[in-house]
Design a protein that fits this description.
single chain, 719 residues, alpha/beta, Spore Coat Polysaccharide Biosynthesis Protein SpsA, Chain A, 64% helix, globular
Length: 719
């Protein structure tokens, strides 16, 4: 735990910020320059060529990106070791700040999510805020964009039960948009246009977010104490992982993040970034300046901005509102994908969004630091095809040299210290330097952990943490080539004009089947085998150098399957590997969430069975008087709001056409209607009341067989 709470200064002198930027990035450039000279010398010794020029350029770009990552670790380590937060950044305290009468909305935008998990996370946050005594200053909003009728009804029913359990009528609100335009950013904008002026701040959460009440109160106090700050981003800790893959990612996040984020904050300061959730935002300037434009051209680069968060932070900064990273404020949590394939699917969405930023880079008025954030985000994905191009170019040079029969003409190194070194020793030196640059931040994170006894205990002790780092490094070595191939495909498909679909993120640890893994990884395996065979034929010695890259591809199927297994994650936990503070000393919020989710697992067989049945939500909304009343009441409330009048007109609510669809629904069954037609029926409150009456009053012979079966099942369940 930090010795002092997070505190934010009102402004950062331009000279100090400029000096830090210069010092940080100059360090990365100097390191890159020195190692690139060594690499250029190695290429020069074997005879220069056009392909070697390409190889050198690729090396410089890739090593610069690696050096920037290394500098984040180095600078963050020395900041945490040798300086207090007050001496390093000159910040002022905020704990005494009053927030009475300050209104804050906590919003949960969701899209076809598991509403049980979303609402239990909201419950844990709500109860934690209640314990602070500041609950009256906060309201909660569930902002649904769900297009699945079953999810829609499930959300309404579970929301109503949560409000009843917490006696939170007028504190927890539910709203589902009739048209989910512009995805999450459009969802948030719709909320702000409707309710935004009631709240000075809003906290944007993700579907799996949980936040400590004290953390939320501190965020509001920080905003109140610093009136020029427009956004404060927390650093969410990954929690609740069960699979081996999830636990490895969770461990890496909790161990390495403090050092890396401290380094990031060193140069970003009040020109920080926004990651889309678990952040507090000043409502008025966000509404005024962050209405995102449509990018020119066709998808995937044109159209709606997918990775809206980076751009929104840049727009706030452009208008002189500070954006800070609360890098040592604990109590912010989120979950992550539990398997390699699900993680790659999330990366696919992020890739397209980040590549779109290439069109934003040169927008008028953006700060230079904002452009740097955008560039680093873009290269987070472009680096993979560059790495692949580097490996292919290297193979080409080796192959050309061997099969043309041209002999090498050794040239003495222009570095006098390497004049007597062999080419092999020279190459080994560069390889060792690269490995040190990659591994140094992990080593520094362990040293940082070793000096903090309470934190060391939270990771299960230094020995267990070291074992976790070794295992995580081995896994990352196998995982990196798969990410390289995935990211390369994502980039190329975007360049080819193929856009990503908006799908719900899978968050549970169900485990990847062998068949599904084979379907997803057969290309990786084939590439690994073919590349390995080619390299072996070329030179067995070269093959062994390529083994770390090839192994991840060849064994991608078992790697994907085994790391998705929950029982292997449990074994690692029992062995003391990949432990995190939230496991060894779980906060009350996570204890509450886990216990209630366990209850749902033990008692949720019926709801799970209903969810698996086609059109179960529609059946409940029509047949169950309780569910029908909730649904109709929410529709009536929405229709009374003049803001949504146009939306109801667009779907034809109250028209004779929708009434005819309702008649068809009863006579033929839901499978005879299109999805859009079913949604139109469910959005018309008069038709839903009429359907409820008709389903119970009509003779069976006038109802479709599906309805007769649903009525019998419902009657049996009620009895």
């Amino acid at each position: 735990m930090p010795s002092e709470p997070t505190i934010i200064e009102a402004s950062t002198p331009r000279l100090r910020r400029g000096w830090r930027l210069f010092l940080f990035f100059s360090s990365a450039v100097l390191l890159t320059g020195a190692v690139s000279m060594l690499f250029a010398d190695l290429l020069y010794r074997t005879g220069w060529s056009a392909s070697r020029t390409v190889l050198l350029v690729l090396f410089i770009v890739l090593f610069l990106l690696t050096s920037i990552g290394c500098m984040h670790g180095v600078y963050g380590f020395f900041i945490r070791i040798f300086g207090s937060h007050r001496r390093i950044t000159g910040l002022k305290p905020f704990k005494g700040q009053k927030i009475d009468g300050v209104s804050t909305a906590i919003i949960f935008p969701i899209y076809n999510e598991d509403s049980v998990r979303v609402l239990e996370g909201l419950r844990a946050t709500y109860e934690s805020l209640e314990r602070t005594g500041q609950l009256d200053q906060f309201d909660f909003f569930i902002l649904s964009d769900s297009t699945n009728p079953d999810r829609w009804i499930e959300e309404e029913k579970n929301w109503c039960e949560l409000v009843r359990d917490l006696d939170a009528l007028g504190k927890i609100y539910y709203r589902r948009r009739l048209f989910n335009e512009e995805r999450k950013s459009g969802n948030v904008r719709d909320f702000l246009n409707t309710w935004g002026k009631r709240y000075r701040y809003f906290v944007c959460c993700d579907a799996d977010s949980v936040m400590r009440g004290e953390t939320l109160v501190d965020l509001v106090k920080l905003m109140e104490a610093h009136l020029n700050v427009g956004l404060i981003q927390t650093v969410p800790a990954l929690v609740n992982a069960e699979s081996l893959f999830g636990r490895i990612q969770q461990f890496a996040n909790r161990l390495y993040a403090p050092v890396f984020i401290s380094g990031l904050n060193y140069w970003a300061l009040d020109f920080g970034n926004y990651w889309g959730h678990n952040a507090i935002i000043r409502t008025e300037p966000f509404m005024q300046y962050c209405d995102l434009p449509q990018l020119p051209g066709r998808k995937p680069f044109g159209g709606q901005i997918l990775s809206h968060d980076f751009v929104e932070a840049a727009l706030m900064l452009r208008e002189n509102w500070a954006v800070w990273l609360a890098y040592d404020l604990e109590g912010s949590y989120e979950e992550a994908p539990q398997a390699l394939i699900e993680n790659a699917q999330r990366e696919r969405r992020w890739c397209q969004g980040n590549l779109q930023h290439s069109l934003v880079l040169f927008a008028k008025g953006l700060r230079g630091v904002s452009r740097m954030h955008l560039i680093l985000g873009i290269f987070g994905y472009v680096a993979s095809p560059l790495w692949l191009a580097f490996l292919i170019t290297f193979d080409w040079i080796y192959c050309f040299q061997k099969y043309t029969g041209l002999s090498e003409i050794p040239v003495q190194a222009f570095n006098p210290y390497l004049a007597n070194w062999s080419g092999t020793a020279h190459a080994l030196l560069i390889f060792i330097i690269c490995m040190v640059v990659i591994m140094l931040p992990k080593f520094l994170s362990l040293i940082d952990l070793a000096r903090d006894w309470p934190r060391r205990k939270e990771f299960g002790g230094l020995l267990n943490a070291t074992g976790g780092v070794v295992c995580e490094t081995l896994f990352s070595t196998l995982h990196a080539p798969l990410l390289m191939l995935w990211h390369t495909r994502f980039v190329l498909t975007n360049v080819a004009g193929i856009s990503v679909a908006w799908t719900t993120q899978k968050r549970t640890a169900d485990g990847t089947s062998w068949l599904y893994a084979a379907q997803r990884h057969w290309g990786h395996t084939l590439i690994g085998v073919a590349w390995g065979w080619f390299t072996w034929k070329l030179d067995p010695g070269l093959f062994w150098w390529f083994t770390p890259v090839l192994a991840g591809m060849v064994f991608s199927v078992p790697l994907s399957v085994l790391t998705s297994r929950g029982h292997l994650g449990a074994r690692a936990k029992s062995a003391g590997l990949f432990l995190t503070p939230e496991e060894t000393r779980p906060p009350m919020e996570l204890i509450s969430l886990r216990s209630r989710m366990k209850i749902h697992e033990l008692t949720g067989d019926e709801s799970e069975a209903n969810r698996a049945r086609a059109h179960a939500g529609l059946a409940a909304a029509v047949l169950d008087p309780y569910v029908n009343a909730i649904h109709v009441t929410l529709l009536r409330e929405k229709q009374l709001n003049p803001i949504y009048a146009e939306h109801f007109t667009r779907i034809g609510a109250g028209s004779e056409a929708v009434r005819e669809l309702g008649e068809k629904l009863l006579a033929a069954g839901p499978e005879k209607l299109k999805s859009s037609e079913r949604m139109a029926v469910m959005a018309d409150q008069r038709v839903m009341v009429w359907l409820h009456q008709q389903a119970w009053l009509r003779p069976e012979e006038k109802l479709a067989p599906w309805w007769r079966a649903m009525i019998r099942e419902f009657s049996h369940r009620e009895n």
